[in-house]
Write a sequence for this structure.
């Protein structure tokens, strides 16, 4: 790899813009436009689909196809019920955590524009029920947009089905920790874009077609990946997502494994992970001195790896994860060095793949 910086000022500027733009499940297209605009100098053409998945293609005429993939969508809420008093009840759009909602500010997305609101919560003085305080639950958290009646809410443009996001912005802690909502998994889209950038700037000619894929709707069941893999029909897929930093308080390492931010990319072991491809990635890490961690998943990875692996009669697939603290909150946190090393590991792994490789156990 050349001395070109992995994360230069332009890259960080893009990352901040990309993260700060909301992309709730089912509404990812504006964020995808930002991503495609950044990726444009580094790919030959784009593929998009009906639901918003975007793919930058390098060597589109090559018969052998390799995917590197992240997902673009973030968790959010749907407006589900508006009371006569103008309060709003919600349901999840993805795995949103109701326990972090009280006292949070929100943006409600309407055809009239963004409507500001807050998840209200009764004062601590009023929540005594014997010796127990009432916990936050999905059926007792409500959004207040400052209205006294349902008609006032409707007049603002808010209706059942409007999507709700948190407005929290990108920040850097202690020089090397990136913090924001939706690092899960727009960091994946960011990292695969940096791989394409490195390939271009290092004048690498690949012996295959590379499909830099930013899928939608992962958070509600890997749906975007299911759709796009059947369109691309790849031969190989390297997926990147996030995994837990299990040094976070209240996480049981006996259950979740032992992985932490700052210790390197996480390489997964799971039925959907093709072992020869995974071993190739580990060999690339060892050869280039890239630190990495290991993680085992019992039945499935819970990522788009599963969608790619079991598509099209079987696709050799592997998962490289970015360790993250505080998943599905507004303060998700990753380490800059891990981000750089995931990018390096995907890049170096691609350089080892030969045209026509099947990674078959029987050859």
């Amino acid at each position: 790899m050349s001395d070109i910086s992995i994360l230069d000022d332009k890259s960080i500027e893009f990352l901040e813009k990309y993260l700060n733009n909301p992309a709730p499940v089912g509404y990812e297209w504006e964020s995808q436009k930002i991503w495609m605009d950044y990726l444009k100098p580094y790919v030959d053409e784009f593929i998009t689909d009906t639901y918003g998945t975007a793919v930058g293609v390098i060597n589109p005429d090559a018969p052998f196809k390799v995917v590197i993939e992240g997902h673009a969508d973030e968790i959010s809420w749907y407006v589900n019920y508006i009371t006569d008093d103008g309060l709003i009840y919600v349901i999840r759009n993805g795995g949103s955590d109701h326990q972090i909602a009280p006292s949070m500010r929100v943006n409600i997305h309407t055809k009239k524009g963004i409507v500001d609101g807050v998840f209200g919560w009764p004062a601590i003085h009023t929540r005594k029920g014997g010796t127990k305080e009432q916990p936050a639950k999905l059926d007792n958290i409500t959004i207040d947009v400052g209205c006294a009646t349902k008609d006032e809410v409707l007049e603002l443009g808010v209706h059942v089905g409007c999507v709700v996001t948190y407005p929290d912005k990108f920040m850097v802690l202690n020089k090397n920790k990136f913090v924001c909502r939706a690092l899960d998994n727009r960091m994946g889209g960011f990292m695969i874009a940096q791989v394409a950038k490195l390939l271009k700037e290092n004048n690498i000619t690949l012996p295959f077609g590379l499909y830099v894929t930013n899928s939608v709707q992962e958070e509600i069941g890997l749906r975007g990946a299911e759709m796009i893999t059947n369109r691309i029909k790849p031969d190989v897929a390297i997926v990147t997502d996030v995994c837990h930093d299990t040094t976070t308080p209240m996480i049981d390492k006996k259950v979740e494994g032992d992985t932490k931010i700052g210790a390197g990319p996480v390489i997964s072991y799971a039925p959907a992970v093709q072992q020869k491809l995974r071993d190739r990635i580990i060999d690339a890490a060892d050869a280039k001195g890239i630190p990495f961690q290991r993680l085992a998943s019992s039945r499935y990875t819970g990522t788009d790896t599963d969608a790619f692996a079991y598509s099209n009669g079987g696709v050799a697939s592997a998962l490289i994860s970015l360790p993250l603290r505080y998943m599905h909150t507004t303060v998700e946190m990753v380490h800059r060095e891990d981000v750089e090393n995931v990018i390096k590991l995907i890049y170096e792994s691609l350089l080892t793949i030969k045209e026509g490789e099947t990674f078959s156990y029987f050859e």
Summary: The first strand starts at residue 45 and ends at 48. The CA atoms of residues 110 and 157 lie 6 Å apart. The mean pLDDT is 96.
